[in-house]
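pls design
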C-alpha cells in the first residue's frame, strides 16, 4: 500500500467516524425526547378497509400448494412449481396476445376480458371462481392473501397481473373496467 493510500484511508475513516458520532448524537437526542414524552406521537395508520375494485382470478396449483387437490377430479396435483409457472405464463400470453393479428397493437380490453374468462373457466384450480369464469367480484383491502392484495392495489383497470405467488399456488388477476 502506498503512503498516500494509507493517508487517504485514514482521512476517510476519520470522516466516517465523525459521521457516526453525529448520527449517534442525533439518535441520543431522539431517545431523550421519546423518554421525556416531548416527541410528537407517531401518526396512526389508517387500516380501514378500502374498496379496490372488481376482479377476476386464475389459480394454478402445484404439488407444494397448501391444498394440492384438483376441484374437478378430486385428485392430487403433481405439477412442480416450474410446470405450473409455465402453464400460467402460457395462459397469460394467450390472454394478452394482440388483437386482430396486428402484433403492434395491444389486445383490446374486451378481448382480454373474454380470453381471461375462458381461461379461468377451463384452467383455474379455484373451483369457486372458475365456475364464474374467474370472477371474484368486488374486492376490499385485506380480504385477499397479502401478495394478491398488494398487486390488486397497483393493478390498472383492464390490466392482467404478472404471476402472483401465494400458499395456494400461482395466480393471475384481471382488474375489471
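designed seq:
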Amino acid at each position: 500500500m502506498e503512503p498516500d493510500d494509507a493517508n487517504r484511508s485514514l482521512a476517510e475513516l476519520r470522516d466516517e467516524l465523525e459521521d457516526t458520532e453525529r448520527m449517534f448524537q442525533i439518535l441520543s437526542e431522539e431517545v431523550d425526547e421519546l423518554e421525556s414524552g416531548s416527541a410528537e406521537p407517531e401518526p396512526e395508520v389508517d387500516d380501514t378497509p378500502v374498496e379496490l375494485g372488481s376482479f377476476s382470478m386464475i389459480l394454478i396449483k402445484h404439488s407444494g400448494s397448501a391444498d394440492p387437490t384438483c376441484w374437478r377430479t378430486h385428485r392430487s396435483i403433481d405439477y412442480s412449481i416450474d410446470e405450473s409457472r409455465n402453464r400460467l405464463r402460457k395462459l397469460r400470453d394467450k390472454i394478452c396476445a394482440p388483437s386482430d393479428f396486428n402484433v403492434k397493437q395491444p389486445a383490446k380490453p374486451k378481448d382480454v376480458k373474454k380470453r381471461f374468462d375462458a381461461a379461468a373457466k377451463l384452467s383455474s384450480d379455484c373451483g369457486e371462481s372458475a365456475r364464474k369464469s374467474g370472477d371474484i367480484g368486488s374486492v376490499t383491502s385485506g380480504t385477499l392473501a397479502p401478495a394478491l392484495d398488494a398487486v390488486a392495489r397497483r393493478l390498472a383497470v383492464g390490466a392482467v397481473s404478472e404471476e402472483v405467488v401465494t400458499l395456494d399456488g400461482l395466480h393471475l388477476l384481471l382488474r375489471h373496467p
